[in-house]
């Protein structure tokens, strides 16, 4: 540890940290443009100048290491003059775009120019102009504003793993851009907007839409991928205009995937905003009373054995427990939440969660990925894997399609089940790598469990974990990676077939679909279908009654991410039209059916969640080990030789919200079209 004095305040910091970090430890704010806590040090903006005793000139504090006994001055006359000079140089060519710039009001350059710059300029020369670059349908560029801080270059290379941005030319002629003009091939491109300290990179869908002081900001959780990214929903006049990530080092650090960030325009398209009832074979608008009456007329005389319920991948925990209680009151055991057919064993929580934890990836020292593509299934989690790989000494083995670009080097072990069987039997060369590691881990993709041999695959993966040092008293290296933010909660709440029940079977005469996009062909012919959800797709078209629900930004709700962490989302805007929160709809139906549920408030529903599973009361996730090595049911040797295939074929349109989004439709078009054809267009 080194003792450093900053403006008379003595602090003790680890050896090797920068002077800037020491100043922040002393509570002093140091301006910066190029420096970012999660990126490598560039030291090229010089805005972070400070004075060090006995130094002949100001130093760049971001790139200068501390020394024991060092005395630092952050507000001396030398420092003030140095910062004013740097700011003057930065503004020589920066255009006066503040009135029309989307970064206005939350721009680092604006703030620091006022706080540390001069009140006048001595330059009368013409400003330079730079051609805007094309970076895809999500990023708008105004490169004349660029100050060459290179944050975007370092993020693309170091975090996203796509070294497609860089600087060309030198000095005043330097320009940042893609070497060949094309769309950035990363699912994390929206983070470039957040880290750009000026208005050079802004959101194309948000261009000229609003000013930050006009927006109502609400903390929530992204449910469009399994990470459970902490987000802030910015809305105005009842409409979501922007979604940004919030910092949570245990979950998403400060990054966010593009689908969750940019698909919000799908929240106002193809919405179900009023009840519908099928009359004479055609769906017709109805009142709530008419919709409830149609449900009561069908269900009241029906035995529980003839009623089934299925919940979808974006459903909140409150609605799930309410529907489960209603089905229990009706005597139904026909429940299902695995609409993708995944062979998940829910008898133990660690069979279906990411037990290492997302942050725990950084503690691991070997990784085996089975039938999963984390880059498209969970881009933020994939960035955490890349972070661990770049730290060194982290071998990654991969079973899946050959030639897949995961953004980090990996050892391709094979395409399918034959490799998995050999690993389970302990006869593969990668077994030795795992056994030598102190904290090895594996990631099993949920998509791998949707195959006919899914039960055997789950058993084989657990066997590999148990026999290769992954299950220890203080370390749990078995991880199942889900696809969406609503897939763990129903497993926690036991929304599964009970005592031989089956939600979708010829015996079912009434089927309740709670946000579940079940293939219409799989629904029994003649079954009475109740569809409750916020977007109308094939399942809604098959329904006899439609009940309009609320999307994740339109309700106070509880979500569980892939690691089992319980998080709360909050209402940012009200549901459109006559749509209501899902648990309230189910509670109202129970009254009509004469099976009144025993809760009338959100707090009461959440108390019920804690009764069903204590995880909802204590937060759900804490780092843990594994002492019971008993595996899930299944024969590991029964895995077929079939290769693992990607389940999410189209990252940009993987859920009902993104499929309704015009922005995501454009992304799907751009990233499925050869770049040569786009250039010709």
Automatic annotation (TrEMBL):
Residues 78-117 form the 4Fe-4S His(Cys)3-ligated-type domain. Its EC number is 7.1.1.-. Residues 215-271 form the 4Fe-4S Mo/W bis-MGD-type domain. Its cofactor is [2Fe-2S] cluster; [4Fe-4S] cluster. Binds 1 [2Fe-2S] cluster per subunit. One of its GO terms (cellular component) is membrane. InterPro entries: 2Fe-2S_ferredoxin-like_sf, 2Fe-2S_ferredoxin-type, Mopterin_OxRdtase, Mopterin_OxRdtase_4Fe-4S_dom, NADH_UbQ_OxRdtase_75kDa_su_CS, NADH_UbQ_OxRdtase_ferredoxin, NADH_UbQ_OxRdtase_Gsu, NADH_UbQ_OxRdtase_Gsu_4Fe4S-bd. It catalyses: a quinone + NADH + 5 H(+)(in) = a quinol + NAD(+) + 4 H(+)(out). GO terms for biological process: ATP synthesis coupled electron transport. Keywords: 2Fe-2S, 4Fe-4S, Iron, Iron-sulfur, Metal-binding, NAD, Oxidoreductase, Quinone, Translocase. GO terms for molecular function: 2 iron, 2 sulfur cluster binding; 4 iron, 4 sulfur cluster binding; metal ion binding; NADH dehydrogenase (ubiquinone) activity; oxidoreductase activity, acting on NAD(P)H; quinone binding. Gene3D superfamilies: 3.10.20.740, 3.30.200.210, 3.30.70.20, 3.40.50.740. It comes from the Bacteria. Residues 2-78 form the 2Fe-2S ferredoxin-type domain. The keyword NAD applies. NDH-1 shuttles electrons from NADH, via FMN and iron-sulfur (Fe-S) centers, to quinones in the respiratory chain. Couples the redox reaction to proton translocation (for every two electrons transferred, four hydrogen ions are translocated across the cytoplasmic membrane), and thus conserves the redox energy in a proton gradient. Belongs to the complex I 75 kDa subunit family. This is NADH-quinone oxidoreductase.
């Amino acid at each position: 540890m080194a003792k450093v004095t900053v403006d008379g305040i003595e602090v003790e910091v680890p050896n090797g940290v920068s002077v800037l970090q020491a100043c922040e430890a002393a509570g002093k704010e140091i301006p910066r443009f190029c420096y970012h806590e999660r990126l490598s040090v560039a030291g090229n903006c010089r805005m972070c100048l400070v004075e060090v005793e006995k130094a002949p000139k100001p130093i760049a504090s971001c790139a200068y290491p501390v020394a024991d006994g060092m005395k630092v001055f952050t507000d001396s006359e030398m420092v003030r003059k140095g910062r004013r000079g740097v700011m003057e140089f930065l503004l020589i060519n920066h255009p006066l775009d503040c009135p029309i710039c989307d970064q206005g009001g939350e721009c680092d350059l604006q703030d620091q120019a006022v706080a540390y710059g001069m009140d006048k300029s001595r330059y009368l020369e013409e400003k330079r102009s730079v051609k805007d670059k094309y970076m895809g349908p999500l990023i708008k560029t105004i490169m004349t504003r660029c100050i060459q801080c290179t944050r975007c270059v370092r993020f693309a290379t170091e975090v996203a793993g796509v070294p497609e941005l860089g600087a060309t030319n030198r000095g005043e002629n330097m320009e940042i851009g893609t070497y060949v003009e094309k769309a950035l091939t990363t699912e994390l491109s929206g983070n470039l907007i957040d880290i750009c300290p000026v208005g050079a990179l802004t959101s194309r869908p948000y261009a000229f839409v609003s000013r930050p002081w006009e927006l109502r900001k609400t903390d929530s959780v992204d449910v469009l991928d399994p990470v459970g990214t902490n987000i802030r929903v910015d809305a105005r006049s009842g409409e979501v205009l922007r979604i940004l990530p919030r910092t949570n080092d245990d979950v998403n650090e400060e990054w966010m995937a593009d689908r969750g960030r940019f698909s919000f325009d799908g929240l106002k398209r193809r919405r179900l905003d009023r009840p519908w009832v099928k009359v004479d074979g055609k769906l017709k608008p109805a009142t709530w009373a008419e919709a409830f009456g149609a449900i009561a007329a069908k269900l009241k005389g029906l035995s529980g054995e003839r009623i089934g319920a299925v919940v979808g991948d974006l459903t909140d925990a409150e609605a799930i427990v309410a529907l489960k209680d209603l089905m229990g009151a009706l005597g139904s055991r026909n429940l299902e939440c695995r609409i993708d057919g995944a062979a998940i064993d829910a008898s133990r929580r660690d069979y279906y969660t990411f037990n290492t934890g997302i942050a725990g990836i950084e503690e691991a020292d070997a990784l085996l990925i089975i039938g999963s593509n984390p880059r498209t299934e969970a881009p933020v989690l994939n960035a955490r894997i890349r972070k661990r790989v770049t730290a060194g000494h982290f071998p990654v083995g991969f079973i899946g399609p050959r030639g897949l670009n995961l953004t980090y080097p990996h050892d391709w072990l094979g395409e399918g089940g034959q490799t998995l069987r050999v690993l389970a039997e302990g006869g593969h060369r990668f077994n030795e790598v795992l056994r030598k590691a102190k904290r090895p881990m594996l990631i099993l993709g949920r998509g791998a469990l949707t195959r006919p041999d899914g039960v055997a695959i789950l058993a084989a993966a657990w066997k590999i974990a148990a026999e290769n040092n992954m299950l220890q008293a203080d370390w749990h290296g078995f991880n199942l990676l889900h696809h969406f933010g609503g897939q763990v909660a129903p497993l926690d709440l036991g929304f599964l077939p009970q005592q031989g029940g089956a939600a979708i079977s010829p015996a079912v005469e009434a089927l309740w679909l709670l946000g579940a996009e079940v293939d219409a062909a799989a629904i029994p012919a003649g079954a009475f279908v109740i569809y409750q959800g916020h977007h109308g797709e094939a399942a809604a078209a098959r329904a006899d009654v439609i009940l309009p629900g609320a999307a994740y930004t339109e309700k106070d709700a509880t979500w569980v991410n892939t690691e089992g962490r319980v998080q709360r989302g909050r209402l940012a805007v009200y549901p459109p039209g006559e749509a209501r929160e899902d648990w309230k709809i189910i509670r109202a139906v129970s009254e009509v059916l004469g099976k009144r549920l025993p809760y009338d408030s959100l707090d009461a529903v959440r108390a019920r969640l804690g009764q069903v599973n204590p995880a909802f009361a204590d937060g759900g996730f804490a780092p843990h080990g594994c002492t019971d090595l008993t595996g899930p049911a299944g024969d590991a040797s029964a895995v077929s030789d079939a290769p693992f295939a990607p389940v999410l074929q189209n990252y940009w349109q993987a859920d009902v919200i993104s499929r309704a989004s015009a922005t995501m439709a454009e992304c799907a078009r751009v990233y499925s079209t050869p770049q040569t054809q786009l250039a010709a267009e």
